[in-house]
Structures are given as C-alpha cells and as structure tokens.
Amino acid sequence: MFEKYDITSIWLVGLAERGGNWYTPRMQTKPLFIVVSAPSGCGKSTLIDMLLQEYHDIVYSISCTTRAPRGEEEDGLDYHFKTKERFEELIRENAFIEYAKVHDNYYGTLKAPIEEVLAEGNSMILDIDVQGAAKVRDYVRALPNNDPLKIGYVDIFILPPDMEELRRRLVNRGTDAPDVIERRLANAEGEIARADEYMFKVTNDDLGHAYKRLCDLIDALSGRM
Ligand code: 5GP
Questions:
Q1: In a domain? residue 2
Q2: What's the confidence (pLDDT) of residue 224?
Q3: Has residue 35 been placed in a domain?
Q4: CA-CA distance, 78 to 133, in Å (whole number)?
C-alpha cells in the first residue's frame, strides 16, 4: 500500500514544501546573513521569533559567553557557555566574527556556524546591538567580494514609531523600574542616532505591518519572490 503511493507521497511532500502549487518550481533562494538591531522595546525579539516560525531555512545565531547560565538557560540553546580560558583561546584562533567584554564577561559570535549554515543554502539571523553590528559590518567589509558572508550580508534596524510610543511600550511591558526605563530610553536615542549605518530600516508601528515589511525585504533579497 505504502509502496504504491510512495511516489505520490514524495510529490505531496515536495508540493507542501513549495507552498502547495504544483506548478511552482522548487525555490533555490540566496543564503542571507541577516543582522538585526533595535533599541529595547521595539519588538525585535518578537519579530525574529515570527520569522523563525515561518522561515524554516533561517537559523538563529547563538552567541558564546563566559557568564554563568541563568535560571532555565541551556547550553547550545540560549548561549554556548564557555570558560574564560576557552573563550580567550577562541579569540586567539580568530574564531569570532566579533566579540565584546560586558561587565567582566565575554560575549561573541562565532564565524564557523555562520559559514556552515550559508554553505548548506540556509540563512543565518544575528540579533546584536549597534556596537556589535558595527564590528560585524567592518568584518564583512574586509572580506573578499566572493565570500558567502559578504554576498549574503544584510543589516536591518528596527525603529520605534517615536520616542513617546517607545516609552509607552516600555512602561506597559511592566518589566523595568522607572530608572531602568529612563536608561533604556537614553540608550535608545544613542542607538537610533546610528540607524543610518544600516542598509534597511523597518519601523515597528504595528507588529503585523512591520513583520510584513521584514518578510518582503527578506523575500526580495533572497530571491524568494
Ligand atoms: P545577557 O547576559 O543579559 O544575556 O546579555 C548581556 C549583553 O550581552 C546584552 O547587551 C547582549 O546584547 C550582549 N550580547 C549577547 N550576545 C552577544 C554577542 O554575541 N556579541 C556581543 N557583542 N554582545 C552580545
């Protein structure tokens, strides 16, 4: 019974993968290296989660850190937890595309996993702050023009509609004390001042609209449309 329908099953799986149209050829998309930054409260994590739910060929870049896991955090899921010695060894081996020391702990993005994901024909998404993104940009700029990381590189800055709305969102989120909110807003102003360094800006005025713009951008850049 199964053997009889085997070819049909394979065809149906292929059909599902292609979005359900029998006449749609299997899509060969360009692997992207997508860097996303946003001030806190702009919905960046939500937008990235939505993308990862829908685009199964986009892989989330997991950073390395020397800080200890917190609460439910898992090695290889939230971070790759490393000892200080191992992290410094990796620095010496030039294994990082960028790294930084924050409050006595190292944080960094490994180069090899990005290269592997792109070589498999998938895309990598990196969620990083403005300073980290600037280091990644400089790194990518220095690569030869035929390097897949350079070919697929795109950086996107998520903007709030305005500062008042950002303040409202941070207050409504209810997770931060007033002084923390003020600090986040001051940081946001500094980060927004650097938004022009990015290739693309997406304003998160409405989550659905912002997500649509992000998808349109990724579809266009990867040749999915
Ligand atoms: P946390 O310890 O709260 O998870 O993160 C602390 C800080 O480290 C955050 O500001 C976060 O953006 C930053 N961070 C996390 N991963 C990386 C990374 O791979 N590179 C850099 N430069 N910063 C990172």
A1: no
A2: 87
A3: yes
A4: 19
The closest-lying atom of ligand 1 relative to the alpha carbon of residue 78 is 4
178 domain-assigned: yes
Residue 118: CB atoms within 10 A of its CB come to 21
Task: Give counts: helices (H), strands (E), the chain.
Answer: 9, 9
- Tell me the CA distances in angstroms from 171 to 42, 164, 177, one per residue in order: 13, 11, 9
Q: Write out the residue range of the structural domain in which residue 210 sits.
A: 7-61+118-222
Cα torsion angle, 89, 90, 93, 97, sign: negative
Q: Is 44 helix (H, G, I), strand (E, B) or coil?
A: helix
Structural domain count of the chain: 1
Q: What is the pLDDT of residues 172-190, one digit of tens each?
A: 999 999 999 999 999 999 9
Q: How far apart (Å, rounded) are the C-alpha atoms in residues 61 and 77?
A: 10
Q: Ligand 1 test: best mutation among 78, 90, 106, 107, most atoms within 8 Å of CB?
A: 107
Residue 92: band (very low, low, confident or very high) from pLDDT cuts 50, 70, 90: very high
Residue 63 Cβ inside 6 Å of ligand 1? The answer reads yes
- Quick: pLDDT tens for 21-80: 555 555 679 999 999 999 999 999 999 999 999 999 999 999 999 999 999 999 999 999
Here the CATH number for the domain that contains residue 45 is 3.40.50.300
